[in-house]
């Protein structure tokens, strides 16, 4: 009797992912075309790299042998919700720190662009006007990083040349190479002293709308809120109120809702800079998830524990 090897679906985007571990059958899917094989035979699923959860989840109801899913993103809240509908346990792994360098790079870009008035200069350029102005500097500014994981620590390394006073916040107190990490319980007191607040925390029931009207009100006048986490970490209506009053500014790579509908008031809110959830998507992204997926395939083929398990 012939014993078939476990079948794996890989994303077509990882074109350089070759020399794959033996003992598994591989198929590639781009998320748009027809399924490459019968989904019922798939045991490990690495979804296409897309933010469209409908694309990612389309084959899940037919994956009756599915044992594990390796996401290519750090955030997995939407995918976990889809897997909760599957009537059997499925191990979910995230991408760990693979997207961190690109996300941290964008966070720095958003900070600099917002502080130095780049959006205003772009509008003036398009309008044919020339209005020199003095803008705030990042040098020596107090920066609070909420969610001090892979992205937060990578961002702090980028902030070092600017001499910023960085305060780190995570779920529990601990020591990090750059200094102490404060408990999230201290966030209400810490947020009041920061000139820049960067959100890089996972979206969980505890962090959903963490920055609600009360937390935003604790931020000091003129502070900048940067969100590279998930849009729902911030109460959009409360943020709109603060920005329309001119008390706070915001730079957002993520929004709630997302994608942001045409005509949404956040698009034209004063002092708000928005990028369309592109933090991790850079030319340097691909080698890191490729290395992770190759390690996971080797572990899966050998029956070993997978890395970056977030739930079962």
Account of the 3D structure:
The protein is an alpha/beta fold. It is built from nine helices and 14 strands. The protein has helices at residues 53-57, 77-83, 100-115, 118-127, 150-159, 187-190, 213-218, 236-244, 287-302, and strands spanning 7-11, 25-29, 42-45, 68-70, 91-93, 142-146, 165-170, 174-176, 179-183, 196-199, 224-227, 249-252, 272-274, 309-311. Strands 8-9-7-6-10-11-12-13 form an eight-stranded mixed sheet, with helices on both faces. β4 (68-70), α2 (77-83) and β5 (91-93) form a beta-alpha-beta unit. The protein is elongated, with a radius of gyration of 21 Å.
Short précis:
By secondary structure, the protein is of the alpha/beta class.
Topology, element by element:
Elements: E1 7-11, E2 25-29, E3 42-45, H1 53-57, E4 68-70, H2 77-83, E5 91-93, H3 100-115, H4 118-127, E6 142-146, H5 150-159, E7 165-170, E8 174-176, E9 179-183, H6 187-190, E10 196-199, H7 213-218, E11 224-227, H8 236-244, E12 249-252, E13 272-274, H9 287-302, E14 309-311
Parallel strand pairs: 1-2, 1-3, 3-4, 4-5, 6-7, 6-10, 7-9, 10-11, 11-12, 12-13
Antiparallel strand pairs: 5-14, 8-9
Helix pairs in contact: 3-5
